[in-house]
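Lab notebook, bench 4. We co-purified these components, and the gel suggests they stay together. Before we commit to crystallization screens, I want a quick structural picture of the whole thing.
Request: model the full complex, all chains together.
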Amino acid sequence: MKLYDTTLAPNARRVRMFLAEKNMQVESIEINLLKGDNLTEEFRRRNPFAKVPVLELDTGEILSESVAICRYLEEIQPEPALLGTTALEKAQIEMWQRRAEFSFLMPTGMAFQHCTGFFKDRMTPNKEWGEECKKSAFGFLKLLNQHLSDFTYLAGDNFSIADITMLTTLDFGRTVDIRLNEKHEHIQRWYDLVSQRPSAKA
Amino acid sequence: MKLYDTTLAPNARRVRMFLAEKNMQVESIEINLLKGDNLTEEFRRRNPFAKVPVLELDTGEILSESVAICRYLEEIQPEPALLGTTALEKAQIEMWQRRAEFSFLMPTGMAFQHCTGFFKDRMTPNKEWGEECKKSAFGFLKLLNQHLSDFTYLAGDNFSIADITMLTTLDFGRTVDIRLNEKHEHIQRWYDLVSQRPSAKA
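Here is the predicted assembly.
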């Protein structure tokens, strides 16, 4: 398997961290987003949506979308389970994964795009919208902090893909000053726990 | 099981259509978003994120996020499979599901919120951003049309949750004039096929 990867993007790090938790190695090819390596005709043949990461299987099949790649990896190597084992646990992980994605990863990513102008050669930044996104990211942190006063990990007792999404986004959020503060003591406890995992170096 | 449902929202219709495909019935409780039924303290005890739909299990466990609810339903009643059977198929469905969500459902939903001002009592609409979202929804339709020139359904040969996401969003898109036109012949062929399924009445 070959992974078309990009060092700085939180979505790509999600997959690297997932691979590290599974202790799986794949060949990696770096795609430089700033140089537009993802916008070439060759890359679009692999992924018409021009997004990274992309996993190319030995059969030639192509998978894009970080969580679709992770689901494939979980299927071919179920242990340790990062997407749950029982029906309820799978659903709870999916629930927290999606809350973290739609209410934190998305607004943080949009705050980055719209506030920094990093991709202004290929999109129209809307600063006001970027600032709104920052506010809603902090709204999520408030709710998550309450939740983590009762639970070890996002989805309960076990570390899961939802924690990977949250950790990688929180680390990336620094680029737009989305950071934990003294009000987020329970998230801070969780952060100290998960950021010590060897996979967090991915 | 009890489903806290709301007739007009595409996310809620996704779950109803999923249930119909599985031929499962659940007790349904209507939540009126316009009246703010989802913003009450009672509702927030079930879902602090104040989003609909919510599934309450007979054990009292609560699941929110449409796809988390669908994953639970798929686990307790695997047939007919709507999330795939083999590792590759599961990953391909997840890939198309996420493409449809992040590149079509999200921008269509944001176009609705920011262009119509429907929820202006609880958010700040940004018309420019709404118009950008509309453009990016049409960008997705262009890529999807190419894809559907080669495949029967979004994820290949089998109807899946990705088709449910796409159909419900496309129907909802009319509210902000996101509609198929003469350039989308392959999506139109797919639309005619899937909208005839009995579950599409959900």
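The mean pLDDT of chain A is 96. Worth comparing against the SEC data before the next meeting. The helical segments of chain A are 10-22, 41-46, 66-76, 87-116, 127-147, 161-173, 185-194.
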